[in-house]
Design goal:
Number of domains: 1
Number of helices: 5
CATH topology: Fumarylacetoacetate hydrolase, domain 2
CATH superfamily: Fumarylacetoacetase-like, C-terminal domain
Amino acid sequence: MSLNFLPWVPPSIAIRNSHDRFPARRIYTIGRNYADHAAETGLGQKTGSVPGVSLKPADSLINDGDTLVYPPATQQLDPEVEMVIAIGRTGENISESSALEHVFGYAVGFDMIRRDIMRECIANEHSWDLCKSFAGASPIGSIAPVSEIGHPHRGSITLSVNGDTRQVGDISDLIWDAAEILSRLSHYSALHPGDIVFTGTPKGPGPVEKGDTLAGAIEGIGDLTIRIG
């Protein structure tokens, strides 16, 4: 048997202080995970035991220094700066106490959202796939391995656009922390090496335009810069 086209090669992310790269398998995003952002959206905070999760295709990933082409059929494009978890070990039904053992490293990411389309999806009770899944929707900076930085539990998280600060928060303000997120996710779907988890954003995201430069940073983890083209 032969394949009728060449197999898809997964996109990859740079690893700090290494020539190796981290191949992406699946991208999860967690919603409403900072109280201030949950309040400004009007959608409320977490309830019950099921986290608000969306999936993005791995081919939506772009890297530090790349240009994100403004997506079609979009009137408002918003970046949300987030701490990203890179999974390095398979696990299912993971306990919170052992969840961090499955983490390879951490990075800065932008969860790019077609906000106008999101509003339509919410109004019509549709899934959010169209508003969060498009080329360039998942910029991620280089991964800082756990072997170098450990597991950060606090540190400032910021986003600036053309040098003007848009978002300021601290990862200690996460409603679901990293261990809780991974434990909950693993009870619904096994986690595997290459999985990426965006952990939520603080208040303040707003629209960007063609020509804008976005710079995100998380204290103790790293930074990420892209341009909108």
